[in-house]
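Researcher: Here's the sequence for the chain we discussed earlier.
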Amino acid sequence: AKPAAGSHAGDKPRLRAVDLAQKVQRQKAPPAAAAEPPPSRQQKRVTELKRLSLQLQGVHPNVLAKHLHRGVLYHDKDVVVINKPLGVPVRDDSGATSISSVLPVLSKMMDGLKIKSDSQLFPCLKLEKETTGAFLLARSEKVVEHILDLHRNNQVQRKYWVITVGVPVPAEGLIDIPVIEREVTGPRPHFKMALSPLYRMNDTGDGVTKVRAHRQAHPAATKYRVLDSSSGCSLVELQPLTGEKHQMRVHMALALTCPILGDHKYSHSNKLAPQKLPDRVLARLGLEQSKIRHLPLHVHARHLMLSGPSGADIRVSCALPKYFLQTLNQLQLTLP
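Model: Thanks. This is the structure I predict for it:
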């Protein structure tokens, strides 16, 4: 049979429009990237720390309230003690989610979600945004006054567990050095607390001379006790006897030269920069110095003791958070 008119036996089959489109697409497509290697142990740790610091920041107030409700450590008709999570401020004037902003919801939860509940909760004592652990709430303003009165008379005992870079010497003692807020000048001007000692070394170097107290300095006293030390770091129990801003951090970093792990504010006296860690500590933590800014502050409100308005003694202990326990394990520090 003869081929159809207008066609030739040697002709190639014509490409359809869809075939042409696919061919052009293939030509435009970038070469396939090589498969990414699995994340290293350090990359996983950094990702974990980033997620940890942002975990409960910016969540819906009801989500935070539920989290706090699940973690209630103690409650009676006068007070409630909650387990404060990392990175959530007690108060925040910018409107972001804070402990104070969710107290109306938490109060209703504590009251069994009763529609006509008129119960309230009020924060009593300070706890920094980056501090975890036992945090005291009062059920009325009258109870707040009772607790503040106890606090002024040093009758509220709070003990914190911290991990320090370095080993305090002696292993137990009292730091009694006033603190003062100072401006630090430079490329990034900022304010931070500093020591304002009442004594200085005399000219011969064999004794001390009393100096006049600075008018803007505040008395600050912190008891400390080393619980364990290893890998150039220590687990230390701190008991502040006064309530000055950042006093424990300043006393550890500047008085004992053993800054708290993750304290990027007080590890350098004259600048703002991530904490500089010794190589062996970095190796234990599985981190490089360039990633250390993601390491959180290791301060935990471990024990709380006071006498309640009804006369009963309140004693509460708060378990360490997971990240704190993980760091203890990495540094081979053991719990007492």
